[in-house]
Amino acid sequence: MLITTDRLLLRRFRASDAPVLAGYRSDPEVARYQSWDAPFPLLRAETAVANFMASDPDKPGWFQYAIERIADKALIGDVAVHLHENLMQAEIGFTLATAFQRQGYAFEAVHAVLDRLFRLQGLHKVAGECDARNLRSAGLLERLGFTREGRLRQQTFIKGEWTDDLIYGLLAGEWLKDE
Ligand SMILES: CC(C)(COP(=O)(O)OP(=O)(O)OC[C@H]1O[C@@H](n2cnc3c(N)ncnc32)[C@H](O)[C@@H]1OP(=O)(O)O)[C@@H](O)C(=O)NCCC(=O)NCCS
């Protein structure tokens, strides 16, 4: 287990998670502002999970934390971290299956990952980026203490249209300020 919170375990993905990953990534509401299209077939999910399993949270590159609810061991979503080559910066992303949204689970999971990044891994800065229309994602980043640093106009061509992206940043000094 990588991280434990009051209600969640953040753990590595396992091969047996692929059907659940395919399930929530196939939800058009979940996929709406993401890089993949719904439906997300099982074969693609199996390949994705194999890649997640081969990665390491302390090495440069992407690592995907599976979010498991302790009460019933349900896989409810994931937190993705892209650690830079310098091991001092990262980008973060997050996805929750629709049935588990609006219960504070995303906040709890991302908060715990940020704590690991800043306290254990000693990062200097974490960035987050979202489609400007994705108010739930921007809201989560702001509740976590991220500062909106910019808006990239018509930055991404996604699902047939150009979209603006919001750029957020959080510094170690801000995360650790109450210590
Ligand atoms: C972005 C996303 C992760 C946000 O999830 P979320 O569940 O809204 O975020 P939180 O965990 O912070 O939950 C906040 C909500 O839970 C409610 N809540 C209920 N119990 C709570 C508790 N114990 N603690 C905190 N909040 C609680 C809050 O009141 C708030 O409700 P509201 O949205 O109606 O105001 C989610 O919308 C998602 O997965 N979207 C699809 C994928 C996506 O677009 N990802 C981002 C790509 S950039």
Q: Give the topology string: H per helix, E per strand.
A: EEHHHEEEHEHEEH
CATH superfamily: Gcn5-related N-acetyltransferase (GNAT)
CATH architecture assignment name: 3-Layer(aba) Sandwich
What is the number of helices?
6
Radius of gyration: 16 Å
- Examine the coordinates and then state which fold CATH places here, giving the name of the CATH topology: Aminopeptidase
Q: How many domain units?
A: 1
Q: What is the share of helical residues?
A: 25-40%
The main β sheet shows up as: 8 strands, mixed
Strand content: 35-45%
CATH class value: Alpha Beta
Q: Judging from the principal axes of the Cα atoms, what is the shape?
A: globular
- Poorly predicted tracts of residues: none
Mean pLDDT: 97
Number of strands: 8
Bound ions, cofactors and other small molecules, one mention each: coenzyme A
The assigned structural class equals alpha+beta
Terminus-to-terminus distance: 26 Å
Strand order of the largest sheet: 1-2-3-4-5-6-8-7
